[in-house]
Structure prediction request, 107 residues.
Amino acid sequence: MKETNTVNKEKRYDGFAIASFVLGLISIALVLGIFINFRMLSGVILFSPISALLSLIFGIIALVRIKRNENKKGMLFAIFGMLLSIFIFSVVFVVLVILNSLSGIIS
Prediction:
């Protein structure tokens, strides 16, 4: 009879899940920077969608890796990172639409 190894391996957080969440928080911080310093607007419009896109990509990668490997955890980090990035995409879209309409009124 074969002996089975019953050693429990500790589940570890997936690095992509944590990266997704952190990048989502960074993009939120960049958007909140608009309200603190309006001169940051051009940087926010550029860097916030980039970090949100990376957050979305890393979140998808993390979810796939967590589903395939039972020794990984961090699904909530990945989901929240993806939700933050979707929120940032919508905020940046609304800001761009408002700026576009204001530029039509001013000129």
